[in-house]
Amino acid sequence: MCHLDIFLIGSFFRYARVNKNGYVRILTNYGAINLELFCKDAPRACENFIKHCKNGYYNNTKFHRIIRNFIMQGGDPTGTGKGGDSIWGKPFKDEIISSFSHDQRGILSMANQGTDTNKSQFFITFRSCSYLDGKHTIFGRVVGGTGTLNAIEKIETDESSRPIANVIFVNAEIFVDPFEEAEIAVEKERENIRLAKTNQENGKNFIF
Length: 208
Description:
One of its GO terms (cellular component) is catalytic step 2 spliceosome. The chain is of the alpha+beta class. It has 4 helices and 9 strands. A 9-stranded antiparallel beta sheet has the order 3-9-1-2-8-6-7-5-4. Strand 1 and strand 2 form a beta hairpin. Helix 1 packs across helix 4.
């Protein structure tokens, strides 16, 4: 079995044990935004986001695109809107849930360049944008910090929708990480299997 197969199997078992939502607070230079992440429904997008937050990938990056009555977009370390990568070093597949919709303010969704091209960039809606449904992976929502959203939405931008004043993703605080909890559970199961196998092999060495 190759390394990739082992990785995919490991991810499958971990994701199967994710049964709660994640919670993250991102701090911007305009205030904090609290996010609920739909980890069970969009595990790849959520794990990618949480791990990028944990390892500081997003720290001090710019929200490079702000469009009033539409979205604020960030997650690109280059600040150009053309950069960024996933935690796996390559694009990952969409996780479209038919019951999810960009039907309100504060929806957290993956930015992309087409089907299955998700990397690190994400956006938060300022209003209902249901026409984005089926095209972008929804993986969370804003549950606190509406005042911060209001302040950011009012920022003036240039003709390319780039804010005149920098809007910075300063850092993030993880309150609940279901993937870390799942990894611990899977590792315990692996250890139990190893111990059982060792005991079984040791038992074969006894002569009666």
